[in-house]
Amino acid sequence: VQYVESGGGLVQPGGSLRLSCTASGFAFDDSAMTWWRQVPGKEREKVAALNGAGTFSDYADSVQGRFTISRDNSKNEAYLQMDRLKIEDTGIYYCARGFNMNALGVWGRGTQVTVSS
């Protein structure tokens, strides 16, 4: 099982980023996917989850209405569109199989998102 997250960077408050997650080693189209983020000194938190068919999603209250999770099962990829970014969105973002959980207990390297003026 492997996750490769990409698309992070430095952005000003109010800006946008689109993260990508390429997954391998399991049946991607049968698997829900969750995006997580971790800030130094805090526990990793769930950000957004999407079922395998891409028809049901769930968001953390802090990102509801600003972030959108999606997927392309033909590419084994999941995405996180992040709009109207806030300074508190800064962190390392990870993806993992599971709906609001890390079903396999494996993490990728993540991608750093920094929101700063």
Strand order of the largest sheet: 2-10-9-4-5-6
Radius of gyration (CA) equals 13 Å
Strand percentage lies at over 45%
> What kind of assembly state do the chains in view correspond to?
single chain
Give the SSE string: EEEEEEEEEE
Total of DSSP H or I helical runs spanning 4+ residues: 0
Structural class: mainly beta
Question: How many strands in all?
Answer: 10
Q: State the end-to-end distance.
A: 37 Å
Low-confidence stretches: none
Largest sheet: 6 strands, mixed
Outline:
This protein is 0% helix and 47% strand. It is mainly beta and 117 residues long.
Model description:
The protein has 117 residues and is mainly β. The chain is built from no helices and ten strands. The chain has strands spanning 2-6, 9-11, 17-24, 33-38, 45-50, 57-59, 67-72, 77-82, 91-97, 111-115. The strands form two sheets. Strands 2-10-9-4-5-6 form a six-stranded mixed sheet, with no helix packed on it. Strands 1-3-8-7 form a four-stranded antiparallel sheet, with no helix packed on it. Strand 5 (45-50) and strand 6 (57-59) form a beta hairpin. The mean pLDDT is 96.
Give the topology.
Elements: E1 2-6, E2 9-11, E3 17-24, E4 33-38, E5 45-50, E6 57-59, E7 67-72, E8 77-82, E9 91-97, E10 111-115
Parallel strand pairs: 2-10
Antiparallel strand pairs: 1-3, 3-8, 4-5, 4-9, 5-6, 7-8, 9-10
Overview features:
single chain; 117 residues; mainly beta; six-stranded mixed beta sheet; four-stranded antiparallel beta sheet; globular
